[in-house]
Amino acid sequence: MSSNAWWVYIVRCADGSLYTGIARDLDRRIAAHNGTGAAGANYTRARRPVRLVYREAAQGRSAASRREYEIKQLTREEKLALVLRSGAAADEGGDQQ
After folding, report:
1. Which of 5, 53, 59, 91 is the most exposed place for a label (fewest CB within 10 A)?
2. Segments making up each domain of the chain, as ranges
3. How do residues 40-51 score in pLDDT, each as one tens digit?
């Protein structure tokens, strides 16, 4: 997943919450979210481990940022539907939050 493309992604945190972000190197970003350093987002740092449940390629950083904003405006239910449509298991272990 490391290329010149930008990615918009959703991770499911250990508490069942969803976090949306963008990255160029998705594998490295997910590892940062799960790592012990300060590289992961403040939100996910207290909710580890995280698991990638959705990803979408974007044409550039600007397009990725716009799509990230669109996804962040969705309700939790709409985000879960997006994850399900992508073929990922959106609700392993029960719906929390």
Report:
1. 59
2. 2-85
3. 788 999 899 999
